[in-house]
Fold this sequence. Notes:
Blueprint (H helix, E strand, L loop, with lengths): L2 H6 L2 E6 L3 H11 L4 E6 L2 H7 L5 E6 L8 H10 L8 E5 L5 H10 L3 E4 L4 H35 L3 H16 L4 E6 L12 E5 L1 H7 L3 H4 L4 H4 L5 H13 L3 E7 L4 E8 L5 E8 L1 H15 L9 H17 L5 E8 L3 H7 L1 H18 L5 E6 L2 E6 L6 H14 L3 E3 L2 E3 L3 E8 L6 H17 L5 E3 L2 H20 L5 E10 L5 E12 L2 E3 L5 H7 L2 H22 L7 E5 L2 H4 L4 H12 L6 E6 H4 L3 H14 L2 E7 L6 H6 L4 E4 L1 H4 L5 H16 L3 E4 L5 H9 L4 E2 L10 H11 L10
Parallel strand pairs: 1-2, 1-3, 3-4, 4-5, 16-17, 19-21, 21-22, 22-23, 23-24, 24-25, 25-26
Antiparallel strand pairs: 6-7, 6-10, 8-9, 9-10, 11-13, 11-16, 12-13, 14-15, 18-19, 18-26, 19-20
Helix pairs in contact: 3-4, 4-5, 6-7, 14-15, 15-16, 20-22
Amino acid sequence: MSKAELALDAVDILAVDDEPVNLLLLSGLLRRQGINLVTARSGFEALKLLPRHDFALILMDVMMPGMDGFTTAERIRADEATRHIPIIFVTAISKEQRHVFKGYEAGAVDYLIKPFEHDILKSKVQVFVDMHRQRQALQRTGAALEQTVAELRTSALALTDSRARFQSLFTSMFNGFTLCSGVDAPGRPLDQWRIEEINPSMEQILERPREELLGRTMGEVLPDLEGYWSDFAGQVARSGQPAQFEGYMAELKRWLRISAYVPGPNLIALVAEDLTARHQAEETLHERTFQDPLTGLANRALFLNRLDQAMERSRRRLNYLYAVLFLDLDSFKPINSSLGYAAGDQVLRTVAERIQGVARGLDTVARCGPDEFGLILEELKNSGEALRAARRINKALALPLEMNGHQLHFTASVGVVLGPADYAQPEELLQDAGLAMEQARALGGGKVKVFKWAMRKRAQYALTVNQSLHNALERKEFRLHYQPIFNLAGNTLAGFEALIRWQVEDRLVPPNDFIPHAEQTGLIVPIGAWALMQACLQAAQWERDFALPKQFSIAVNLSAKQFAQPDLVRHLTRVLEETGLAPERLKIEITETLVMQNPESMVQKLRSLRELGAKVSIDDFGTGYSSLAYLQRFPINTLKVDRSFVSDLDAFENLVIVRTIVSLAHNLGLDVVAEGIETERQRAFLAELTCECGQGYLFSRPLPEDRALEMLGVCCPKQGPARGD
Length: 725
C-alpha cells in the first residue's frame, strides 16, 4: 500500500471528558488530520465503546464523576483486547509527581496539562496516528505475505511480484524498521539480538549501510547503548505486549521514539521515529521564548515563571525565605547617545556577567527591560543575605570598564522585596520591587532600598493625583492665592506673589502634594500658563481699581518646563497684550537651580524678558550653587533670600549668609526680598541690613482673591476727584 493510500485512511481516536466544550475543542483541533474523533462523557461510556472501534489513541480527562481517568485507564490495561491502546491524560490536575506517577502507573504514556498548546497536542496525536497506520500497514503486510506464500506454491511469477510489492512497502516507510532474532531471546538483553532485516530509513538513523548491519548483534552496532533502552526492549520481548519509548540516544546523538512488538517466536521488531529535528526546533523556540538574545539571561517571561515557583514554594514550606532584587542602571542612556548602541549592548552584556558573578547556582538572573535586571535569591538563611547580595552587585558594577578609549563607571539603583510576602501574582511582587528601585534612585542612584507597603500607597496616591490633574483645568478647580510683599522700611505694600492652589470640592490641596506630579507629567506647562494669565488679569484689574505704588508688582513663578518652552517670550507678550497689564508690573520668579542648569542659554532668554519690560527675580537664593561670574551677567532685578536662612537668624552661619546675600545684591545693583519672616525681630534685623522687601506670616498668609482685595482697599485706596469749596 502506498503512502498516499495510508494518508487517506481515517483513524479512530477516543476522547473521554465530562465537559462537552472540551470535546468540541478537541474535535475542532483534530478535524483536519484524517481523524475520526469518537467521544465519551464518562469512563463507563468509554469502556462500552472500546469493543466497537480500533482506536489509535485515547485522550482522557482525569477528574470525571463516577469513574475517574485513573480507574478507567486501569480497566483498559486489564483487558487483553485493549491494553495496547496508548492513553494520554489531557487534564488540569496538579503537576505534582505523585499525581504524574499515578497516571503512568495506571497505563498513561504521556500527559498534556491544561491549558495546552494546540500545536503540541496535534503533534503528539499525529505520532500515534502514524504508529497506528503503520501497525495496520504491517498487519496488512502480514496478510499480504501469507497470501504471497500461497501464491508462491503455484507461481514463481506471483512470488516475484509479491516480493516486489513487499520491498516497495518496506523501503518506502518513513520510519526506521529493524527485525531482530535470537535463540532463547526473551531472556536475553537487547545487545545480544541479531539484526535480520533493516530498511533504508533505519540505515540513515544508524548512519551505516545495510551490508554492515545485517547479521550483526545490536551490541556490536551500538556498543555504548544505554541500559534503559535495553531494558525497554527486553520487557516487550518477555511480555509479548507492544510498547513505546521516547528518549535521547547519546551514541547516535538523536532523539528517537521506538515502538517495539513481537511479530513471532524469538523475534522482535523495532520501529524508530527520528524526533531530533522536532526537539531542536522546540529548543530553539524555548530559547526565543524564554531567553534574552543579547545577554543570554532569562527574559522577563521566564523570570516571572521562576518567581511564581518561588512564591508557591514559600506557601508550602514553613520558613522558606527568598528575595527579589530589581536593578536599573543609573544614567545608561548617555552611553547609547555618545558611544553608540553597539557600545551600549556591550555594557549590558558586561553588567549581566557581573550580576551572574554574584548570583549563586540556584538563583535566577534575568534581563527585564532595556537596562533593567532582576535577580531571584532562593533558600536564604535570613533577609540580610539579600541586602549583602545587593551591595556586592553594586560593588561589582562600580569597577571601571574600558570602552572605545573611555573608562566607564556604573551604578545601579536596587529595589528589594523580601519574601515570603502576600502576593497573588508574581507581577505584583515585581511591581513593588520596581517601586523600591525608584525610591533608591530618588536618593541619588547607586543605592539599595527595601520595599515597604507605604511606597505602594504613595504610588497609588500619585496615580490618583496624576489622573485628576488631567481634568482639573477643564473643571476650573485651580485657584490663585496672593501673599503680600511689604517694604520693610515703611511697612507699605510692595506687591503680591501669586501662588497656585487646587480646590477639590471643599478642600484645598497643598502645592507640595500636586506640583511635583504636575512637573513630572508635563501638566505644569498648561497649569502654569493658566496661572500666568489669571495673575496678569487680576493685577490689571487692581491697576484700574486701586492707587498702586509705582514699584508695585505681581510675582509669578515659572517652572523649569515652562521656562524651557521656545515660545516663552512670545507667550508672555501675548498675555500682557490681552490683559492690558503694564510689563513693569510683572515679575517672573525662577529658581537658582534652574538658572544654573544652562547659564549661557539662560542669559539670552533673561535679556529677552528684560527687553519686554518684565522684571526677573531669583527665588530661593542661597540654596543652590550660583556662579558669581554668571550672576553678574544675568539681567535680573531681585534676589529672594530663602526662608530656611531667615527662619533661624539666631544661628551665626545663617546670619552671615543673609548679610552676605544682601550685600552681594546691592553691589550688583539688585534689590532683595526675604521670605519666611515670622517675627518682628526678624523684620527689624533685615530692615537694619537695608533689605528692601519681605514676606511671611508676620505680615500675612497667602490670601484668596476677596481677602487680597480687602488689603488693597486698606493699603492702596483710590482717591476720588478733588471737590471744590
